[in-house]
Amino acid sequence: MEIWINPACSKCRTAIGLLDAEGADYTVRRYLEDVPSADEIRAVLARLGLEPWDITRTQEAAAKELGVKEWPRDEAARERWITALAEHPKLIQRPIITADDGTALVARTDEAVRGALVRGRR
């Protein structure tokens, strides 16, 4: 399993703490330093079963500068959203855990992290 984190994020630190407490085998991706490509974002979205606007942090300064809240949320605009996430990784919601069973989830709650652990043990 892999977890995309921003070390400055309290939810990310909490998720890492839970994974460590459970003795989980995982790798950390500091996605602000190791920025995911557009293709990687597409792959994670497919695993999440979400659209790019579902994982966009619309309150970030870059989001406000880009005006993403006003962007259409449809198939025609999907690539625009993905490009924005790849070019401005701070916009990516965190933490994201990719589980060993091929799924992924946004692990902002303890329950979500535990769900990733269960998926990883199947």
Secondary-structure topology with pairs:
Layout: E1 2-5, H1 10-21, E2 27-30, H2 38-48, H3 61-66, H4 78-87, E3 96-98, E4 104-106, H5 110-121
Parallel strand pairs: 1-2
Antiparallel strand pairs: 1-3, 3-4
Helix pairs in contact: 1-5
Q: Got a strand count?
A: 4
Give the biggest beta sheet. 4 strands, mixed
Mean pLDDT: 95
Order of helices and strands: EHEHHHEEH
Give a quick precis of the structure:
The protein is of the alpha+beta class and 122 residues long. It has helices at residues 10-21, 38-48, 61-66, 78-87, 110-121, and strands at residues 2-5, 27-30, 96-98, 104-106. It is built from five helices and four strands.
Task: Give short descriptive properties of this protein.
four-stranded mixed beta sheet; 11% strand; 122 residues; Glutaredoxin; alpha+beta; 5 helices
Walk me through the structure.
The protein has helices spanning 10-21, 38-48, 61-66, 78-87, 110-121; strands at residues 2-5, 27-30, 96-98, 104-106. A 4-stranded mixed beta sheet has the order 2-1-3-4, with helices on both faces. Helix 1 (10-21) crosses helix 5 (110-121). The protein is 42% helix and 11% strand. The longest helix has 12 residues, at 10-21. The protein has 122 residues and is α+β, with helices and mostly antiparallel strands. The chain is globular, with a radius of gyration of 14 Å. The mean pLDDT is 95. It has 5 helices and 4 strands, in the order E-H-E-H-H-H-E-E-H. The chain has a single domain (2-121), classed as Glutaredoxin.
